[in-house]
Amino acid sequence: MVTRRGLLKGSAAATLAAGIGPLPWLVSPSSAMETVTSKSPVGISDDLANPMEIHSVNGRLKADFYMEATDYTLPSGPTKLRIFNASLPGPTLRLKPGDTLELAFGNRMPPNKDARKPVVTNVPNRFNTTNVHYHGFHVSPRGNSDNVYLQIEPGQSFNYVVQLPVDHPAGNYWYHPHRHGSVSAQIASGAAGMAIITGTLDDVPEIADAIERVLVLQAPIAGIDGLLESEKPIWPLDAERDFLVNGQYRPKIYIREGEVQHWRILNAGDAQFIPLRADGLEMHLVGLDGNPLPMAQQTDEFTLAPGNRANLLIKAPKTGTYALKRPAFMQGKASLPEEHLADIIVVAANDPRIAPGIKFGKEIPTGELPKNEILTDISADEVTVKRKFVLGVKDVSGFFDDTEFTINGRGFDPRRDDVVAKLGAVEEWTLINTTPFPHPLHIHVNPFQVIDINGEPDTRKPWMDTIAVPAAGTVTFRTRFVDFTGRYVMHCHILPHEDTGMMINVNIEV
Amino acid sequence: MRSLIHRTKGAAAIVIACSVLGITAKADDSKKAEMPVAASQCLSCHGTNGNPALKDVPILLGQQPLYLENAIRAYQEGRRTGGQALVMHEIVKDLSDADVKAIATWFGGTQ
Predict the structure, then answer these.
(1) Element (DSSP H or E) covering residue B43
(2) Domain of residue A259, residue span
(3) Residue A11: its pLDDT value, please?
(4) Chain A within 8 Å of B82 (Cβ-Cβ)?
(5) Domain carrying residue B54
(6) Contact residues, chain B, for A454 at CB < 8 Å
């Protein structure tokens, strides 16, 4: 059995960071894109590197992508992970509104061991069958776009063509597999990467002046003997996990005294929430799920549910070594321990290891932040339909852990349309959680504006695509169904819950 | 092992409740009534030992039975509205009058 707390933790963290990074990735000569190698934004050798990036060129990003069982050394020891392009996390995609994303995707994983067994919906199955979801993208859910009903079997290839509207909101998005039944196993394995659509916050002078970091937070799970083949290690919410930042265990992050850095942070985990603290440093939130907040908001702690992203400006007042931590907290009734995610090392402003020409942001924006133009406030008068969705769980003998998670009393059925709405409708949805654990609900294609949580108005009225419905609590949001018809889903982003039923189909008709 | 981490509804929760409260069908302590079946759905949030793990969920054990009965009926009939009242409405909407009284009496009388 794999030892969860192996020799490689602790003293060997630096070795891990330096020696076992992402494997080289080969680019097709015909690809319409530019690549930026994985590197430290301050140029210090043991500083946390940003994941490698693939940028669009002249309105196109065309690249080869694949999922493969890849050798990787986790803190608990060597294993195989199902990951994109042999990289943990996957490459960051950097696009502009109006771009076309073309991924020639190949499923290079081995045949499913349960291929001869019939699939039972809402029971985890066929961990090597996959597809790709573009989380948060406002794009068509049909055909070869953001179509999560596709089943790409081992050995098969599929060409994705995803057309971003010219007025697509700028922000932090991400990509990950979304084939019902194998989502939790593949994301728990580390199959995920950031996708950035540039603009809006990037144009704020104080943010443009700052060094930018991408931080992808993951807690990959190894199988008993290599590739993960069972849902069991993923299932307990309080399972012991080793949290990685950009694939590294407890990396070092360098900041200069007086400096402000812009961090794009993604919780790409499969189940556990991540409250974040960096005591001794200033944290200023400027965006949630990529969308700007009304103003920079200083905070000591904020929480990313699985699937959430944040734009954070972090300021270092004094030299010293600080910790980026997840404090101990309660996720509903589950008690989760403190996790030390990274060391933040604040060096002198004139540290000779950092070249003089490297950006040195020093200010936090003080005025109103710009908005993504199409995401205008939705007033009560604009709402055309109100709906409610009750999140629950029930016993189903023979299912995994005899459990099926439900929305409005029913587990997921791919054949059923749970919501049928008209293109152009403006709806207010209330999510009612009857369980003692929070559920982060994510809806595809169209973002929503959060109105209240447990009946308390959120005065920021943030635009998000993933929102944690508190344990025994409620969330109300409003959304516009615009631009795209077709079927897509809303589901819990605690992915074992999604794979075991907490998902509905939404069908937008002309 | 059957996980109680994602879910605490159903038979497993009842077993725990009975164990913690010292309630069994053969209980010698005649002062403690047997838990009504309908109360089992309350335990996952309101706790099995009078101390809910969720900080914003009220303690029911030892509460006045009449208060509990009135509160449940208010949730059923939608006279308490918005926010977490919506959760309670979904939980209690299908309870019979007898269930409401039994739950209120049991929680109120058990301490």
Answers:
(1) helix B40-46
(2) 208-347
(3) 36
(4) yes
(5) 11-109
(6) 56, 83-84
CA distance A372 to A423: 21
CA distances for A129 relative to A124, A179, A183, B99, angstroms:
11, 7, 9, 47
pTM of the predicted model as reported, rounded to 2 decimal places: 0.91
Residues lower than pLDDT 50 in chain A? 1-29
Is the Cβ pair B5, A237 closer than 8 Å?
Answer: yes
pLDDT value at position B16?
Answer: 35
For residues A430 and A433, give the distance between their C-alpha atoms in angstroms, rounded to a whole number. Answer: 10
The partner residues of A68 in beta bridges, in order of sequence, read A83
- Per the CB < 8 A criterion, the answer to whether A346 and A319 are in contact is yes
| A157-163 and A211-218 strand pairing | unpaired
pLDDT of residue A284: 98
Asked if B94 reaches chain A (Cβ–Cβ under 8 Å), the answer is no
A455 vs B45, B84, B91: nearest CB: B84
Q: Retrieve residue B89's tokens.
A: 């409405």
Phi/psi region, residue A11 (left: phi>0; alpha: psi -120 to 50; beta: rest), is: alpha
pLDDT for B51 equals 75
Residues A327-380 have pLDDT tens digits of 999 999 999 999 999 999 999 999 999 999 999 999 999 999 999 999 999 999
**Domain of residue A294, CATH code:** 2.60.40.420
In total, how many domains does chain A have? 3
Confidence bin at B109 (pLDDT 50/70/90): confident
In this predicted structure, what is the pLDDT of residue B17? 36
Chain B residues in contact with A124 by the CB 8 A cut-off are none
The dihedral of CA A475, A478, A484, A487: what is its sign?
A: positive
Interchain CB contact of A306 with B (< 8 Å): no
Residues in chain A with CB shorter than 8 Å from the CB of B54 are 332-333, 436, 471-472
- The reply to whether residue A434 touches residue B84, judged by beta carbons under 8 angstroms, is no
Q: CATH number, domain at B28?
A: 1.10.760.10
> Tokens 């309670």 correspond to what residue?
B88
Assess A232–B contact: CB distance below 8 Å, yes or no: no
Which of A393, A407, A494 should one mutate to test binding to chain B, selecting the residue with the greatest count of B CBs within 10 A?
A: A393
**ipTM, 2 dp:** 0.85
